[in-house]
Request: fold
Amino acid sequence: MQESRLSLALYEPDIPQNTGAILRLAACMGVTLHVIEPCGFVLDDRRMRRAGMDYVELAALVRHESWRAFLAARPFGRLVLLTTAAERAYAGHAFGNGDCLLFGRESAGVPQEVHDAADIRLRIPMLAERRSINVANAAAMVLGEALRQTDGFPR
Ligand SMILES: C[S@@+](CC[C@H](N)C(=O)[O-])C[C@H]1O[C@@H](n2cnc3c(N)ncnc32)[C@H](O)[C@@H]1O
Reply:
């Protein structure tokens, strides 16, 4: 199996169906998914497995018991945080192999210490008066651009 050296990370996700959909995306693209716990559900939640279908077994899933454990393992080159608070648009960023695309929790995004730890912060441009995009859709948009730029799509 060809694997991209990009990776995805979810900070304390709280909706199992979103994590399942992102696991499926990661499995299909050959990308590792880091899940930073605690999650708002148990990781083999029935709803997550249903959204991820049988792709759950094919995904490279790495669990980290906390934000600190994730930082200590540092399983990435640059940490690229996707946040509505960033000024820079993702499509104008030059992604590189080793980049880890980090997404916040559905209910609250990420705390300040996570913002501070990011090497790069990017946003997906949206029309005014819209709060945010579903995290699984945001992950698909940004991972697609990063794979395109790094020639990382499976062949
Ligand atoms: C539902 S959103 C979180 C909304 C949360 N209330 C907040 O204030 O951040 C879940 C995650 O999706 C990603 N996301 C959603 N829309 C985005 C956008 N327009 N630009 C960048 N990231 C976005 C971010 O990683 C965000 O933390």
